């Protein structure tokens, strides 16, 4: 055994910095502490669970070597019994395996695979060209020296041949592949710290080996910054090693107070992107604009709705001193809210009560426009029919089989509603099911739905309850549970 001790917990404050990625560990985020005995006191260093990889000594501390799963089951201290929760266990395990896969072990496997299936990605081509280029640059001066000694014209030719061959190889590539090679040469010449600066300026992950840092920079400059995950709408999309796939493993939701798992994975060409790729540190204003837009993608729309509403409020006198006055003000404001498409409950009475509550809570604010602003920020705006259609269409298209689109959306909505009521276990379960549906290669129908949870036709992530709900959806067009949750959240 090593002399270090490990334990896992939800961060009690937001003050600690992750020793791996150097970012702050937010309050409530899952972190792993490594405690080492010091002379006077014990030293604890913290890492995000997703940044934690087991050191060589730790792996070698048992025979057979310690696996991540065994580490979580037997070795790590868990004073709050976090890992008793099956979903939490799976999330942490997934995060740790991801962290591991960007390390050394995976690299070796990747090389073996390339040799066997001969399917080399453009990043590997770029890496090869880079190596050849550096080799020819190293050789050339030597050859020249040799030439002075014994006038060996032949050798001089070989080195020119080498550069010529590389040039030809680059020229034979498609325009976009050629760009990738150019970017690769540009970034691969940098140190890890320089690469991290680029990644920081572009809000990308900073952890991992130099190879993956280079790949992230090359991919980012070629395609734009990786954006927000389309599945959980909260996590950031990340690049897998090899730069052919992207994935998301979820995010910490401050409102729900827990980590939301996500199982999104897609080809790199389908990833959501943001432009531009910053080649220098963006200004504070730019950073602020990007972070606010990300937190609330509808902010700009909300702001313009508030501006447009100015005239409607011009002649509105709010009397909030009496109950009657509040009620009257609430129904007047409701009318404006309806006209402006604020996403309030459809039920008149419920909506009036909600507005009334906001009015009472903000008695000191007398401007109708300010009150409207608060209401819009709380409820948001309804999506227009066109927007809804577009969102649904793209979600359906996101499925491997487009016909599974409606089922995918129904299960995802169920998951969202569970998260809304802070039932993260159920939320995560259905999130996993919706992701499984998204990647299914056949259409779910009445005759195969129930088989998805058992036997040879079992699909990972789908249990009996979920299979029954999928059967219900494909036969009845909806799911009772979903209707029930929808009604409760009206
Ligand atoms: Zn970290
Ligand atoms: Zn996600």
From TrEMBL:
Residues 151-163 have a biased composition (Acidic residues). GO terms for molecular function: DNA binding; zinc ion binding. Residues 140-169 are annotated as: Disordered. Residues 6-97 form the PARP-type domain. SMART domains: zf-PARP. Keywords: Metal-binding, Nucleus, Zinc, Zinc-finger. It is found in: Nucleus. GO terms for cellular component: nucleus. This is PARP-type domain-containing protein. It comes from Corethron hystrix. The lineage of its organism: Eukaryota, Sar, Stramenopiles, Ochrophyta, Bacillariophyta.
């Amino acid at each position: 055994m090593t002399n270090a001790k490990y334990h896992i917990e939800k961060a009690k404050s937001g003050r600690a910095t992750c020793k791996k990625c150097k970012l702050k560990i937010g309050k409530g985020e899952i972190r792993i502490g490594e405690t080492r005995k010091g002379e006077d006191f014990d030293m604890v260093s913290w890492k995000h669970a997703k940044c934690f990889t087991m050191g060589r000594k730790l792996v070698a501390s048992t025979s057979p070597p310690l696996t991540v799963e065994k580490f979580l089951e037997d070795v790590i201290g868990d004073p709050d019994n976090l890992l008793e929760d099956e979903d939490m266990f799976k999330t942490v395990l997934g995060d740790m395996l991801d962290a591991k896969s960007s390390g050394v072990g995976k690299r070796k496997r990747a090389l073996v695979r390339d040799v066997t299936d001969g399917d080399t990605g453009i990043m590997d081509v770029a890496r090869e060209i880079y190596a050849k280029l550096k080799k020819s640059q190293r050789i050339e001066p030597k050859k020249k020296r040799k030439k002075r000694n014994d006038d060996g014209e032949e050798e001089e030719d070989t080195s020119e041949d080498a550069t010529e061959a590389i040039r030809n190889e680059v020229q034979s590539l498609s325009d976009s592949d050629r760009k990738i090679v150019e970017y690769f040469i540009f970034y691969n010449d940098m140190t890890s710290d320089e690469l991290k600066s680029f990644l920081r300026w572009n809000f990308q992950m900073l952890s991992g080996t130099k190879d993956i840092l280079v790949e992230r920079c090359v991919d980012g400059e070629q395609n734009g910054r990786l954006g927000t995950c389309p599945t959980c709408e909260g996590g950031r999309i990340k690049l897998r090693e090899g730069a052919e796939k992207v994935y998301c493993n979820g995010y910490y939701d401050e409102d729900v107070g827990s980590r939301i798992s996500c199982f999104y994975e897609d080809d790199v060409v389908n990833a959501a992107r943001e432009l531009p790729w910053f080649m220098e540190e963006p200004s504070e204003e730019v950073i602020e604009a990007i972070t606010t837009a990300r937190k609330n993608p509808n902010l700009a729309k909300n702001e313009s709705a508030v501006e447009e509403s100015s005239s409607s409020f011009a002649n509105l006198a709010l009397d909030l001193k009496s109950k009657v006055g509040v009620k009257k003000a609430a129904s007047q404001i409701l009318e404006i809210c309806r006209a402006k498409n604020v996403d309030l409950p459809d039920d008149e009475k419920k909506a009036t009560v909600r507005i009334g509550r906001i009015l009472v809570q903000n008695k000191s604010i007398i401007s109708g426009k300010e009150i409207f602003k608060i209401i819009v920020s709380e409820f948001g705006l309804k999506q227009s029919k066109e927007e809804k259609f577009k969102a649904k269409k793209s979600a359906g298209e996101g499925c491997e089989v487009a016909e599974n689109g409606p089922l995918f959306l129904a299960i995802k909505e169920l998951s969202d509603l569970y998260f809304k009521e802070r039932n993260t276990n159920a939320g995560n379960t259905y999130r996993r099911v919706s992701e499984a549906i998204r990647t299914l290669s056949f259409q779910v129908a009445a005759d195969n739905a129930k088989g998805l949870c058992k036997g040879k036709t079992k699909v990972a992530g789908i249990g009996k309850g979920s299979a029954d709900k999928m059967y219900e959806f494909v036969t009845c067009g909806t799911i009772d549970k979903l209707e029930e949750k929808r009604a409760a959240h009206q």
